Amino acid sequence: MNKMSLIEHLEELRRRLIWSLLFFLGGLLLAFSQRKFFLDLVNGPHRWAMQHLDLPVSQYVFRYQDAFISQFKICALFGFVLTFPFILYQILGFVMAGLFPQERRKLLYLYLPSFLALFLSGVSFAYFLLVPYGLQFLALFGTQVGLTPMINFNEYVTLLLILVLMTGSIFELPLGMALLVRIGMVSAVTWRKKQKLAILIIFIGAAVLTPTPDPLTQTLLAVPLMILYESGYWLSVWIEKRKLTVTDTPVSSATLQ
Question: How far, CA to CA in Å, does 54 sit from each of 62, 84, 131, 150, 157?
Fold first, then answer.
């Protein structure tokens, strides 16, 4: 672990923040140049829902600035995604300077891959299942009484980004549970004792997060979260067993003599 003064740490942080900002701006410009492709990608859940109901897939903007604002949101998101490996490199370069070799290995080969895998799983789940079926239900609910949807594109983009990013964050549940056990704030037994309360909170949270009030869509989100909670419990059990293995080292006969 390299020893650096406070001024050196701040200078290193400033340098890496500048590089990260430059990478992001480059990604933003690249995404803006290909914005038609990314807009088509964002429209995927809406297009699927409307086509399954034989409804027009057209979307509208009701203010002059909405077209720019919605496209900027999309380009900013995908610009960040495109440059994320470069930004991540800068973050790791700063953080790992203060870590021991064993901590670096855990960060690179355990914590970081787990974080990315869980987040991407949540994003994919929301994009391919949660949002399309939720939008289909909402549109169907209106057409049954003769209402024709006129979708505000800016509001749709905001809703989609919120649901996708929040679902990706929620899928980090096992990692968060394991981290709390790792630092000793709670134990695996606590997660098991609070399981019924956790299931209640999961269903309440699913009712709040899903764009529709129907039980099917809420259950569609709640079931994976319950599976993730159970996974977090068993991961916590594994971490506690490893901690006991490390602490309960046998005392050698030479030490006793």
Answer: 24, 38, 18, 14, 22
Catalogue the long-range contacts made by 171-174 (C-beta closer than 8 Å, 24 or more residues apart): 171/118, 171/119, 171/121, 171/122, 171/125, 171/224, 171/228, 172/115, 172/118, 172/119, 172/122, 173/225, 173/228, 173/229, 173/232, 174/118, 174/228, 174/229, 174/231, 174/232, 174/235
Start-to-end C-alpha separation, the chain? 36
Q: Give this prediction's pTM.
A: 0.85
**Which residue's entry shows tokens 């909405």?**
66
Given this model, what pLDDT does residue 218 score?
86
**Mean pLDDT, residues 81-101 taken together:** 88
| Number of CB atoms found within 10 A of residue 58's CB | 10
Q: Where are the domains of the chain?
A: 1-167, 172-244
Checking DSSP bridges between strand 151-152 and strand 59-60, what pairing results, if any? Answer: parallel
pLDDT in tens, 139-191: 888 888 888 889 999 999 999 999 999 999 999 999 999 999 988 899 999 99
